[in-house]
């Protein structure tokens, strides 16, 4: 009964027969994107913080 599931026991070979590591490459890309995204978010935060501090100094000098 388990072998006659909806797609059969060999469905993965039929659906992803010639993937040539595409799934592995995709996962590596996702991991790298997440890794770099973390660094990019830090850079964005630092730039925003720098901008806000500069703006605050300008506002303090006006008052």
Short description:
By secondary structure, this protein is mainly α. It has 2 helices and no strands.
Mean pLDDT: 72
Terminal CA distance? 80 Å
The tally of helices reads 2
Structural class: mainly alpha
Q: Which regions have little confidence, pLDDT < 50, spanning 5+ residues? A: none
State the share of residues found in helices, binned by percent.
Answer: over 70%
Count of strand segments: 0
Please trace the helix and strand order, writing H or E for each element. Answer: HH
Return the domain count.
1
**Overall 3D geometry?**
rod-shaped
Keywords:
63 residues, mainly alpha, 2 helices, rod-shaped
Describe this entry's structure for a reader.
This protein is mainly α. The protein has one domain (11-62). Helix content is 73%, strand content 0%. The protein has 2 helices and no strands. The chain has helices at residues 11-15, 22-62. The longest helix has 41 residues, at 22-62. The model has no long low-confidence stretch (mean pLDDT 72).
């Amino acid at each position: 009964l388990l072998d006659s599931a909806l797609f059969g026991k060999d469905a993965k070979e039929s659906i992803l027969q010639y993937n040539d590591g595409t799934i592995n490459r995709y996962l590596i890309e996702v991991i790298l994107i997440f890794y770099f995204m973390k660094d990019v978010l830090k850079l964005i935060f630092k730039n925003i913080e720098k901008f806000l501090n500069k703006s605050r100094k300008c506002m303090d000098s006006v008052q």
